[in-house]
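Field: COMPLEX_INPUT
Field: COMPONENT_COUNT = two
Field: RESIDUE_TOTAL = 645
Field: MODE = joint
Values follow.
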Amino acid sequence: MHRMSGLSALAFSLIVGVASAVAQTERTPETTSTMPAGATEESDDSSASAATLEELEKRLTEQERENSARKKEIEEMQKRHAEEIEGLAARLDMAEEAQLDSLDGAAEEIDRELSIYGFFDVTLFKYLLDEDHPAYGVAPEKLSFTVSNLNLYLAGTMTESLRALVELRFTFMPHGAESSLTPYERVDTSVLEPHTTAEIQLGGVIIERVQLTWQPHDYIGVTAGRFLTPFGIWNVDHGSPVLLPVQPPYLIVRQYLPLAQTGIQLHGRFFPREDFFVDYAITAANGRGPTETAYDLEDDKALGLQLKFTYQGNKVNAAVGGYGYYGHTTDITKELDLSDPSQLFKMTIDNVSEYREWTGAIDFLLELYGVRLQAEYVRGIVKYDVRPIRVMPVVNIQDPSGELQPDYIKWDGYVLLAWQLPLDSLIGDMRLTPYGMVERSVMDDSFPDLDAITYRVGLNFKPNSFVVLKFDAVYVTFSESEMMNVPWWILNGQLAVSF
Amino acid sequence: MKQILLLAVLVAVFLILPNGARAENPNDILIVVNKGVKQDSITPGELKNLFLKDKTTWRDGQKVVPVHAPGGSAVRKAFVSRILGMSIEDEKIFWQKRKIKTGKVKPVEFGNSLKAVFKLRGSISYVFRSQYREGVVKIVLVLPAN
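Field: COMPLEX_OUTPUT
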């Protein structure tokens, strides 16, 4: 009944509307009034009006002529540009066609070109240490600029399953490095150029990575050469444009695990679901040692095993991983004995240090709507077969009492929280990310003077994808130390550039 | 009563009709592969893995060659947003980081991605429906226009 009333109302409205329209068309227009005859004043006025009207009409005609001419000009320009654009597009098409013809179905040709890219950073830092501080003089405490990283990558794909990667780090070191504190010695690589007699300082090259990877399938591949140890987040992220803070944590600096190894790695990835994958890696390498980049001083190889589980959603990413490492590390001295006439020479090799370590690391990452929560923990046991005299790290001084290095436990953990601020509407594609981090580091539980707690707060600003500006403040305290229990601040600013 | 019944029938027909019978929008994104690829369908999740190079092979083990439309194109922007869940700038940042971490570089770009997929074994790319030409490549997924 209600619906029927509604329909009736609609029909009634329609009828009324039509009726009004019909009535409107039948209405006669009003007639205009006519001028009375014989009004001379009004004739003068109308002559003036006619003249004005004529003037206006003239101006209008001229204006129309000008507009028409301009419109023609614009059309001609558009036509010329359209022809140019068409020409460019045609040339581009031809170039791409030629490129595709040369590829001719060979997908492996796509990446065959060598990619050269890299990054560098410029840092301004200041250690806030006064002269009374126990650590005064250990680190460069004056306000300083430094270029600490210039990393160059050479990446090439030879076939669909074969690729190579070289990463070189160029550095001004060892120039300026303090090689000894007792007596004080500083490396000076200054030389005179023979041609100009200008003094120059020689730098150095560090081979960070040089590896060949054969990966016939996602689930299995082999990498041989010098590779980054596949543990954690920080070590894998690796480069200053990728990392949030300026300085690496003690977990990296103190090398609880070897950061890179020379050897071979078996690795792969499985996809139980399309948004969830499992990575594994098995490493066999020289491990640690004073000569490990060139040769091993042990037949035992360092072994490692990694497992990592990653979930990759639309707005949420999460990963949990672990790496276990066993290494056997030896240091030796050699003595050449020429006294025996029956032999050309006799070489005596003595082990001066020998230890085994078992170290495990776990890592966790959660990225959720711009928030990043990252944590790592590493713990290891070191047992000596041949004990050296204990050496103070950083200053590299042997214990004056001659105490031998005992077995020890080492561990380190940090938590980092960062938030990429949702400021798209204000700053567009630029990115602003404040962060905070806390770390506890126990380098050697038999020597607690070096146990450290660090707190960091900082800010990352990315104006574009190539550049990041970082500012952070680090508060360091050696809380367990009787000698070093005076905290200090480090202030950093860094410009990191990827190219 | 009859009017109500007529209205109900019209609504039901509209709902029941399959998607394919809806009007095709020229801004639908078609995911296309080389005709030599054996796989006939792909999920958005799988597509994301291929274009982020987290996965490098088809289900049968053939190597995948992901091909992007040119940077700055409307179809690239739409694809990156819907499938990769990123803005174009975020994608640039992602590949800067990934290059440094792993040495992997971003997928190749071609101005005419349809021609590239036609030519390259194992390749996959995307075009707007308005750019598609019948018979040249195989469609494995349709992303309806928003």
